Amino acid sequence: MTARIYDTDVLVVGWGLAGLVATREALLANKRVLVVDQEPRTNLGGQAWWSFGGLFLVDSPEQRRFGVKDSLELARQDWFGNAAFDRPEDAWPRRWAEEYLQFAAGEKRSWLRGLGLGFFPVVGWAERGGYGAIGPGNSVPRFHIAWGTGPGVLAPFLRAADDAESDGRLVVLPRHRVTELAVHDGVVVGAVGDVLAPSLAERGAATDRDAVDRFEVRATATIVASGGIGGNHDLVRAMWPERLGTAPGTMLSGVPAYVDGSMLPVAEAAGGTVINADRMWHYVEGIQNWSSIWPDHGIRILPGPSSLWLDATGRRLPVPLFPGFDTLGTLAHLRSTGHDHSWFVLSSRIVEKEFTLSGSEQNPDLTGKDVPLLVRSRLGKGASGPVQAFLDNGADFVVRDNLDDLLAGMRALPGGDLLDTARVRSEVEARDREIENDFTKDAQIAMLRSARSFRGDRLVRTAAPHRILDPAAGPLIAVKLHVLTRKSLGGLQTDLQGRVLGLGGEPVPGLFAAGEASGFGGGGMHGYRALEGTFLGGCLFSGRVAGRAAAAV
């Protein structure tokens, strides 16, 4: 079989956000660029298209308008308290973290605004922590939602790609899967791989890997921007660290199946080094999608702070493992229980104020930039349309008028037989007694009252404290929650130019990496934990760095 041969200045492997940003930067430097991806063209934009569009910014105008006092120093305190870097190989990730913080506190917002991107005016408070000042978590709200969500973030880079394709400076090759990086005299000079059979699959749907031809790309510089491993559950389990307990027997996928980690061993074979592969970011508020697109498709609930969180037996989670406070701390605790699921118990009043679903397709108001729909969805009575669809159709939701019926409905779901219903009743009633006073020993109630001192939370995110069993706040709701795979925090080790490093710490000539494939920079700029809004931002920053450096080769 004779391979199809292409020649270019810069080869980009992967057309997600990092790859598209790198492509734009190389095009701005007047380089010819060729982009390959194993998926059909319907998936152009990769995982970012599905994202909620959250971006981590520091001391932004949006924060200041809501009275938030942020600073680079406070953000650095939070980031490094969260990351807990403790390995010799963390030297480059530390430097990437510092560079990214400077970007997030400086040029990031103006650069994006210059590209036409706007922001929802209310800043979200994700990963609230609940520990000491130098422990994990965001001290202040920093989660800026892009107007248009993930597709809005992608839009300027997709436009740049379309324009460059039209004038012949860019070639995009769907269904081209790289199987090997070409190396000559120690220099990466391109890639070879399989041309896969055409596919008419819709965006996100799984596709086959049937090869019909071979291809070869000769390039001066090659950028690996192929994403992480979250769609490959076998690989997630193989990399699962002991500190997070035993890997779940069953998980949901927060990313499509093509997020398979297949380029990491390819880059290693060419001399690159993968570090921190045991660092990963998975959610514990996953629900089965009632209208699935990819295998084991799960959606994450972005919870406000009021829901009562119980383990599979009905025992309340310990302080400070409240909804939205410490993702990996909660994951580690729940893995210690020996069960793959947990529960939220809450009122309809909490659902209508606090439940947001992650994903562009679950937020049509923000994604479609529809202000009237946004006002109805975020400020009106009742749950938003997408949330109501899960209440009506979701396999993990139980909606009942009284606690007896709710407990019976919970026990009827798979795994519900583990519930100690007397314990659940005791937890709910005890929590409700603590609502009677404005002061309380219940740390969660104290924290949600504190949250409402932030005007953004009071406006759209945190329900007024009330008894869950108050009939006026009903009906009652229980949600069965699953582990949901999402992000790799480790990856190909890179220097501050995005150059992939070998085992000896020297750059592999001609080879660069960006996005999740590089741990969002350096091989893991987040360390052990992420502050949220930093995944898209990491793709933007590392893609920009790698694209500029590759164009300079």
From TrEMBL:
Keywords: Flavoprotein, Oxidoreductase
InterPro entries membership: FAD-dep_OxRdtase_2_FAD-bd, FAD/NAD-bd_sf, KsdD_DH
Gene Ontology molecular functions: oxidoreductase activity, acting on the CH-CH group of donors
Protein name per the record: FAD-binding dehydrogenase
FAD-dependent oxidoreductase 2 FAD-binding domain mapped to chain residues: 9-536
Pfam family, one: FAD_binding_2
